Amino acid sequence: MKVKKFIAKNMPEAMNKIRKELGSNAVILNSKEKKSGGIFGLFQKKSIEVIAALDEEPTIRKTNQSTKPVIDHTVQNINKMTENKIVLEEIKQLQHLLETQSFQSKNNFPPMLEHAYMYLLDQDVNEQIALKIIKGIEKELHPDEISKEKIVRQLKIELKRSLEHLSLDGLSYKKQIIQFVGPTGVGKTTTLAKVAALSMLEKQKKVAFITADTYRIAAIEQLKTYARILNVPVEVAYSLEDYRNALISFSDYDLIFVDTAGRNFRDPRYVKELQQLVDFEQFKMETCLVLALTAKASDILSTYNQFKEIAFEKVIFTKMDETATFGSILNIGIGENKDIAYITNGQDVPDDIMKPDKDFISKLLISGYEYA
Q1: In sequence order, what are the residues at sequence separation of 6 or more whose Cβ sits closer than 8 angstroms to the Cβ of residue 260?
Q2: How far apart are the first and last CA of the chain?
Q3: Shortest CA distance to 137 belongs to which of 356, 327, 366?
Q4: CA 105/CA 101 separation, integer angstroms
Q5: Which of 126, 155, 264, 335 suits 243 as a labelling partner, its CA being 20 to 30 A distant?
Q6: How many beta carbons lie within 10 A of that of residue 77, not counting itself?
C-alpha cells in the first residue's frame, strides 16, 4: 500500500492533488486543519493536511468452493466513507462560494474587492465605513488592473485618508488635570501609570496622583505601588469634597492624574455615580475614555455611548497585544469622530504604550489581509 501526505488550502484542492498523484482509487485515511506562519500566533495561514493511500494490489481471497475472487469489503467501506466526506466538504465549499457571490451581487464589487470588503467586516469594521473604504479603492483601480498588491496599497491610502482629521498626538498638555474613565477590566490604572511616566520622562513634568476608585481596595493599592515606583504623591478621594481638597493640595503640580472606578457602565446609574464623585466641570481637566480592544465591537460602542454624558476629549485603546481584531479603532475614530491619544500593547510601565500615527493604524488594520 502506498501512503502519502498532502498539504493544500482546502479539501477540493487536496483531492485534485491526490487524484493526480495516486489516481481515483486512492482512499483518505485522515485529514486535519493546520495553521502556519504568522507573527506571535497572529495572522496565521490555514491549510489542510490529508493522508491518502493507494492499495496497489487489491485484497482478494480465494476459496475452495469457487474460483471467483472475493473483494475485501473493508476497503469498499473506507472508499464509501471517503466519498461521503469529500461530498460534504465540497458542499461546504460550494455554500461558501454561493454566500460570497450573494454579497457580490449586493455590493456589485469585483471578486477581489469583495474579498477585501469581507476582510474589513471580519475585523469588526462598521459596514458603512468598510463600504466607503472599498468604494474609494474601486474609484482608483481599473477592473482590469485589480490585484492583491494594488488593493493592499490602496487600502493603506484610503485608511490614512479616513484618519486625517483625527488628532493622534497623545495628551495635549494644555490641561493640568488628566482624568481616566472607563469600564472595569480595561487597564485604566496601568494605563494612567504609563502616561504619567511618559510625561515625567519625555516632558519633565511634575506629577501627582488621585484615585477615586474606592470601589476596589486592590485598585488603591495598585496606584499606590505605581506612585512609590515613580516617586510621586497620591491621595485617595472617598467623596467629591475629598476630590476637590486633593486638587487644591496638588495645585502647584504640572499634571494631576485621576483614576476613577471601573464599573459595569452598561447601567447608566454608574455614570451618574461617577459624576457625583468627580468634578467634570473643571475647566483645567482633560478626560480620556479607556477601552479594551479585546471587547466585542458592539460592546465597545455601547460603552462609548454610555459615557457620552461625560465630556471626554480622547480615547485610549488597551490590550492591542491580546487580539487580532482592530476594527473598533476605526469605528470610534472615524465613526464617532473621536481623537485617539494612545494604544497600549502590554503590561510594562512605561514601555508598552504608543502614540498611534495614521501609518501605524493602517498597517495594523490590514496586516491580516496582507499576509492571508
Answers
A1: 179, 180, 181, 188, 212, 213, 274, 277, 278
A2: 36
A3: 366
A4: 6
A5: 264
A6: 11
Q: Is the distance from CB of 28 to CB of 49 less than 8 angstroms?
A: no
Pairing of strands 314-318, 353-354: unpaired
Q: Percent of the chain having pLDDT more than 90?
A: 39
Q: Looking up cell 474460483, which residue turns up?
A: 67
177-181 vs 255-259, strand pairing mode: parallel
Q: What is the pLDDT of residues 136-173, one digit of tens each?
A: 998 888 877 788 889 999 999 999 999 998 989 899 88
pLDDT at 253: 96
d(CA 254, CA 282): 16
Cell of 321: 497585544
Q: Assess contact for 287 and 280: CB atoms under 8 A.
A: yes
Short-list 328, 330, 319, 338, CA closest to 362: 330
| Beta-bridge mates of residue 255 | 207
Please report, as a single letter, which amino acid is at residue 37: G
- Which element (helix H / strand E) includes 363? helix 358-370
Nearest residue to 74 via CA among 59, 61, 62, 63: 59
Task: Choose between 43 and 295: higher pLDDT.
Answer: 295
The residue written with cell numbers 488628532 in the block is 167
Sign of CA dihedral 262, 263, 265, 266: positive
Q: Interior CA angle at 95 toward 93 and 98, to 5°?
A: 110
Residue closest to 112 by CA, chosen among 158, 160, 155: 155
pLDDT, one tens digit per residue, over 213-257 is: 776 777 788 899 999 999 999 999 888 888 889 999 999 999 999
Name the burial class of residue 230, with classes exposed (0-12), middle (13-18) and buried (19+) by CB atoms within 10 angstroms of its CB: middle
Cell of 259: 483614576
Which triple of cell numbers denotes residue 187? 487597564
C-alpha cell at 67: 474460483
Q: Rounded to an integer, what distance in angstroms lies between the CA atom of residue 6 and that of residue 17?
A: 7
**Cα dihedral 13, 16, 20, 22 in deg (nearest 10):** 90
Burial of 46 (0-12, 13-18, 19+ CB in 10 A): exposed
Nine cell digits for residue 162: 479616513
Cis upstream peptide for 356 (omega within 30°): no
Q: How many residues does the chain have?
A: 372
